[in-house]
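Structure tokens please, single chain.
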Amino acid sequence: MLIPGRCHCGNIHFELLWTPEPTQIPARACGCSFCLKHGGVWTACATGALKVRVRDPAAVSRYAFGTKTAEFHVCAVCGVVPLVTSEIEGRLYAVVSINAMEGLDPARLARGTADFDGEGVGDRLARRQRNWIADVEFVPAANG
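Here you go.
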């Protein structure tokens, strides 16, 4: 299943290839202070592939806090955060915002919460390696 998504203005665009076809898509509302402030709800398919296109890279802010092991990609034009990345052992991993997804039937979402307070950095990175999208590619944006 190919799931498109984007920030509000379309500067940051992604396509998540979810394989195998899901019956339900986990949607985890993160309890960290940043996600609580902007309503971050994330999903990932560890066996999937993510392609990200950025029309204007200069209009993307990357925000890292706390352990500084993850970067929130914030569109500086519209303020939406469509994805988070984490580089672990030279490989890029990602989660995407379900709020940035387009054309997805809300009935497919299995909503829940996540709280990682007290999780050590090593455990956090190992969890991301297991659960986050491991096939992440930033590709040039199409002209126009």
